[in-house]
Every structure is written in structure tokens, then in C-alpha cells.
């Protein structure tokens, strides 16, 4: 069995299919690991979701910030209002990335499927951890597993109005050893798993800077993967989200996989067994935002 890791697809279905052909992926014997953000920005998000869903156990995915935004938007702005006789399409005009998706007949099935997906993938034998954005450097492996399960349970069972408070309005960037309540902790942890790039020494997150850390001049914070971490360094961490890294990192056992296909660059796969990279170029010079 061969394991392939693919970074943020962002609706680039044609590029995904070309890459699948290039690596000669066989769903009977191989496994496709997806770092999240499968949808939005590119033109064919629903086709991407349908394909990955069709793979069943031959795929391992984690949810990214765009999947969480879609789930939130569907239950709070689409399912409740979209079919209202006096409102119709006006309610999602400001969210045009998702507009076409919400017109598809199977969209609710796809959202239900997404709600059942994990925020974290771990293979303890291969010593692999996969998340969308990163792992907080002050977390132990037990913390990572526990916090991910809390978020996954929250996503699966929480009512739409409450879900919106944690996703759409989440401004929790301050790390604390002890939180006032579990929901405060969940808000911060969602940002770590799906949105984090830079951390301060005190554990807080800087959510404003997206630059490649090799060109960033700021000394008060640094990328999460440059801190000493509590997790056993034999574990490799595979992640997406940070397209300005362009798939490059000098740190041992750290594998950024987002190579900016939706920004006109390329879609990349990593064959785990021999650490060989494969990529295909974006098929249009600049992906339009739908």
C-alpha cells in the first residue's frame, strides 16, 4: 500500500484528476491523505468533494477553515433562509464562493459527510500527524488528541446558532494553561488546528501575518514549527494552509503541502514511502473566485 499526501485543493478538480493520474493512484491498494481546504476559491469544489467522498476508506482527510466556514454558512445562511419565498438568493450573494455549491442537489449530503470528518489524523505506526494548519508547540500528543476529539464532537452535534458563534465570530487567539470553560478552549483550539501560522513565545497566536517565515523580519513571533515542541520528534507533521511556504520547510519531519494551486501555481502530492514529490501546474493563470 502506498500513501500519498495532497495539499489544499481549493476546488481545483481538473488539477486534482491530472495529479491522480500522474501518481497512478489506485484506491484499491493506496491511500490518499488530504490536508483540508478541499473547497472554495477554485471553480469545481463540489466535484472535488464528490470524488474524495467516493474514495471511502481509501482517503484520509482533515477539516480546514474553509470546510468549517462552509458548514457554518450552510446551516446558518442557507438551510434556514435560502428557500424562504421572500429571500431566495439574496442571502448568499455576499458568499459567492459557496453560491454554486449550495445549488447542487446533493449539497446537504456532502455537508453531513464533512461534519463527520476529523480535525486530526494520526498514524502511530508510521509516526505521522496530519492537520490543516499546525500543532501548538506547547501541546503534548495527548493534548492534541484530546483537543481534536472535543472539536470533532462539537462539530457533529452542535446546533447551528451555537456553531456560528465559534466559527464566524471566533477571535480567540490567546493561549491559556487553564480556560474559564471548555467552550473558550475549543474556540482557541479551532484556530490552532485550522488557521494558525505564527506564535508568540507566550503561546498566543498572531493571525495577521501570512508571509513566508524566511522573509519575515519580525522577531517577536515565529512559525509554530520553529518552537521546541512537546511531541516526540520522531513524529512527522504534515499540514496545508500556508501557501506562501510553497511546500518548503527546512525543519526535519515538517511537511507543508499547500503549494498555491488556487493562486496560479501548482498542486502537489508527496509519496510517503520514498518522500518523492509530484506536482501539476494550475491550468489557468489565475483562479477566479466563485
Note poorly predicted spans.
Answer: 82-94, 286-290
**Helix/strand-derived class?**
alpha/beta
Radius of gyration: 18 Å
What's the CATH class label?
Alpha Beta
Helix content: 25-40%
- CATH homologous superfamily classification: Metallo-dependent phosphatases
Strand order of the largest sheet: 3-2-1-11-12
Sheet-strand content, in percent, reads 15-25%
How far is it from the N-terminal to the C-terminal residue, by CA? 37 Å
CATH topology: Purple Acid Phosphatase, chain A, domain 2
Please describe the biggest sheet, giving its number of strands, its sense, and whether it closes into a barrel. Answer: 5 strands, mixed
Number of strands: 12
Total DSSP helices: 8
Protein name: bis(5'-nucleosyl)-tetraphosphatase (symmetrical)
Organism: Candidatus Riesia pediculischaeffi
Enzyme class: hydrolase
Family: Belongs to the Ap4A hydrolase family.
Give your account of this protein's structure.
The protein has 290 residues and is α/β, with parallel strands linked by helices. It is 30% helix and 15% strand. It has eight helices and twelve strands. The chain has helices at 13-23, 45-54, 65-78, 96-99, 107-115, 141-157, 160-167, 182-194, and strands spanning 3-6, 31-34, 59-61, 121-123, 128-130, 198-200, 205-206, 221-223, 236-239, 254-256, 266-271, 276-281. The strands form three sheets. A five-stranded mixed β-sheet has the order 3-2-1-11-12, with helices on one face. The chain has a four-stranded mixed β-sheet with strand order 4-5-9-10, with no helix packed on it.
Amino acid at each position: 500500500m502506498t500513501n500519498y499526501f495532497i495539499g489544499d485543493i481549493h476546488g481545483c478538480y481538473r488539477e486534482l484528476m491530472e495529479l491522480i493520474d500522474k501518481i497512478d493512484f489506485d484506491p484499491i491498494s493506496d491511500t490518499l491523505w488530504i490536508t483540508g481546504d478541499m473547497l472554495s476559491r477554485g471553480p469545481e469544489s463540489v466535484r472535488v468533494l464528490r470524488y474524495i467522498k467516493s474514495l471511502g476508506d481509501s482517503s484520509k482527510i482533515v477539516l480546514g477553515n474553509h470546510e468549517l466556514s462552509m458548514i457554518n454558512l450552510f446551516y446558518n445562511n442557507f438551510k434556514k433562509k435560502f428557500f424562504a419565498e421572500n429571500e431566495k438568493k439574496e442571502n448568499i450573494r455576499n458568499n459567492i464562493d459557496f453560491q454554486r455549491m449550495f445549488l447542487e442537489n446533493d449539497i446537504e449530503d456532502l455537508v453531513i459527510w464533512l461534519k463527520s470528518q476529523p480535525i486530526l489524523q494520526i498514524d502511530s505506526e508510521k509516526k505521522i500527524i496530519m492537520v490543516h494548519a499546525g500543532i501548538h508547540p506547547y501541546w503534548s500528543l495527548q493534548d492534541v488528541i484530546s483537543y481534536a476529539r472535543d472539536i470533532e464532537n462539537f462539530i457533529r452535534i452542535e446546533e447551528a446558532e451555537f456553531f456560528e458563534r465559534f466559527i464566524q465570530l471566533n477571535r480567540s487567539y490567546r493561549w491559556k494553561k487553564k480556560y474559564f470553560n471548555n467552550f473558550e478552549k475549543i474556540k482557541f483550539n479551532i484556530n490552532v488546528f485550522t488557521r494558525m501560522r505564527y506564535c508568540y513565545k507566550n503561546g498566543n497566536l498572531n493571525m495577521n501575518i501570512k508571509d513566508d517565515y524566511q522573509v519575515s523580519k519580525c522577531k517577536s513571533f515565529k512559525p509554530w514549527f520553529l518552537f521546541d515542541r512537546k511531541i516526540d520528534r520522531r513524529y512527522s507533521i504534515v499540514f496545508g494552509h500556508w501557501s506562501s511556504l510553497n511546500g518548503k520547510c527546512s525543519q526535519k519531519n515538517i511537511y507543508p503541502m499547500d503549494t498555491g494551486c488556487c493562486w496560479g501555481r501548482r498542486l502537489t502530492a508527496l509519496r510517503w514511502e520514498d518522500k518523492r514529490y509530484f506536482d501539476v501546474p494550475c491550468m489557468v493563470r489565475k483562479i477566479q473566485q466563485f
